[in-house]
Amino acid sequence: MRIGVIPIAAARPSGVWSRKSITRSHKSLLVISVVAGLTITLAAKDFVKPVARPAKTYPAHDEHPEERVAVGADPYDTPDKASIFSINFREHDFLPVFFVITNDGDQPVSIVNMDIKLITANRSKLSPASTDDIYRRLSNPQARTTSPLPLPRKKIKGTISTKEMQEIESSQFAAKAVEPHNTQSGFLFFDVGGISTPLAGAHIYVTGVADAKGTELIYFEIPMEK
After folding, report:
1. CA 139, CA 155: separation in Å to the nearest integer?
2. Computed over its alpha carbons, how large is the radius of gyration of the chain?
3. What is the DSSP pairing of strand 220-223 with strand 115-119?
4. Fewest beta carbons within 10 Å, which of 116, 141, 149, 211?
5. Whole-model pTM?
6. Can you say how many angstroms the Cα of residue 102 is from the centroid of all Cα atoms in its chain?
7. Cβ(73)–Cβ(97) under 8 Å?
């Protein structure tokens, strides 16, 4: 009796891949690895503070031409602008405002005693939150200081990561003086819990800015609806 020859393709066990299948699988794994690597890199990127322009170039600003000092404010109140942070500050009822002060004079300006207030349309006076205030809010989202009504949260965070701490500290406005022909900048974080439209009809008042002789300059008023 003649024994038939079994074709090679038919004799291949069902669990064995062809060379073409293996190559396709390797390519798929490579693509997945690249995408995963990019995702990790983007998630781990450090916060980079925006480059400040001269204060008088911002839509919301106030300038004292005689003293040659100007202050500007740029609210980061949209998801697109706020995406520079890894922390969702709005979710924790904080409004980030990029604050800029420019000294075009020939003498330094002292801002050691500078006081900043966000005055809302209903005359609420909000001071920038301190680092400790932000830490407390992020570590205990239920601890509210301005609104008695708790709002639903997407997530509850019990601790603050090292990366978040570094982001908070590196982003905040911390200058004590502005050198001649220089600009200082950084973020102010206002607790706007319970205020649906904090910028509508609001102003930022800045006092305590002094010249090189210690004489306090006239206050600055920045209309925020601009």
Report:
1. 11
2. 28
3. unpaired
4. 149
5. 0.74
6. 21
7. yes
Domain count, the chain: 1
Is the residue at 10 inside a domain?
no
Q: Quickly count: other Cβ atoms within 10 Å of residue 154's Cβ.
A: 7
Q: Which domain holds residue 59?
A: 55-223
Per-residue pLDDT of the chain (226 residues; tens, 9 = 90+): 444 544 544 445 555 455 555 455 555 544 444 444 444 444 446 889 999 999 999 999 999 999 999 999 999 999 999 999 999 999 999 999 999 999 999 999 999 999 999 999 999 999 999 999 999 999 876 655 444 444 444 444 457 899 999 999 999 999 999 999 999 999 999 999 999 899 999 999 999 999 999 999 999 999 998 6
Burial of 26-53, coded b for 16+ CB within 10 Å and e otherwise, reads: eeeeeeeeeeeeeeeeeeeeebeeeebe
What residue type is assigned to position 36 of the chain? A
136 in any annotated domain: yes
- Which of helix, strand or coil describes residue 141? coil
51 secondary structure, DSSP code:
P
